[in-house]
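User: I'm preparing a small set of examples for a lab meeting where we compare how different chains pack in three dimensions. I only have the primary sequence for this one, and I'd like the structure in token form so I can line it up with the others. Please keep the answer compact; I'll paste it straight into my notes.
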Amino acid sequence: ISKQLWDSLSPELQAVLEEAAYAGRDACREANLKVEEEGAAICEEAGCKINYADKEAFKETAPAIYEMFADQIGQEYIDKFIAEQD
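Assistant: Understood. Below is the structure token output for the 86-residue chain.
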């Protein structure tokens, strides 16, 4: 939706659209997780070994990467991204 159209909507309608967007996001994440789990099970049954990422290692390394891109994308967006990861 364009900013111009968004700004023309009432606060009430904006709230409804935001709520719908979040509900859609959550439903999509849930569906993706289910497909991922089913796919992993199929692969494991076929003899594949799945290596899962060490999230703590990523968390330890990530701050240096965030710093590299802070000027390009803005610290505000990096902070939002980090908050979503927790």
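A couple of notes for your slides: The first helix runs from residue 3 to 8. The mean pLDDT is 94.

User: Perfect, thanks.
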